[in-house]
Amino acid sequence: MKGLRARGGFEVDIQWKDGQLTEATIESLSGNPVTVRYGDETRELTLSTGDRATWSGK
């Protein structure tokens, strides 16, 4: 999936395989901080406008 809009001014691209996350890319459209959760992991991200962060599902 590409181009999903998330609350707080983010665009998210997600890749799945066999029901598991393989990669997620988050782009900040507004420079707001964000908390990302998947499974037991939680990450706090602070991205400038236009910056991207990629999270491997492994």
Lateral strand order in the biggest sheet:
1-2-3-6
How far from one another are the termini? 18 Å
Number of domains: 1
Derived from helix and strand composition plus strand pairing, the structural class reads mainly beta
Uncertain runs are none
Number of helices: 0
What sort of overall outline do the alpha carbons produce when their principal axes are compared? globular
In terms of DSSP E residues, the strand content is over 45%
Helix content: under 10%
Rg, please?
11 Å
Largest sheet descriptor: 4 strands, antiparallel
Q: H/E series, N to C?
A: EEEEEE
Number-wise, the strands total 6
- Overall pLDDT: 93
Structure in words:
3% of the residues are buried. With 58 residues, the chain is mainly beta. It is globular and about 35 Å long. The chain has one domain. The model has no long low-confidence stretch (mean pLDDT 93). The two termini are 18 Å apart. The strands form 2 sheets. It has a 4-stranded antiparallel β-sheet with strand order 1-2-3-6, with no helix packed on it. A two-stranded antiparallel ribbon has the order 4-5. Helices cover 0% and strands 64% of the residues.
Please render the helix and strand layout as text.
Blueprint: E1 4-6, E2 10-17, E3 20-28, E4 33-38, E5 41-46, E6 52-56
Domain Alpha fucosidase A-like C-terminal: 1-43
InterPro entries: AFCA-like_C, Glyco_hydro_b
Pfam families: Glyco_hydro_95_C
